[in-house]
Amino acid sequence: HIQIHDELCISIKNKEARIMVKKIMEKAISLDGTDDVVDLGASSTFFSTNVNSISMWFKMPDTSGGEERIFVSNSDASASDLRVVVSTGGTISVDFWNGSSLSSTTGGSAIDDDIWHNLVFTTTASAQALYIDGVSVATTTHTRASRAGSVSATIGAHVASSVYADVDVSDFAIWDAALSASAVKALYNAG
Question: 3-class SS at 146?
Answer without folding.
Answer: coil
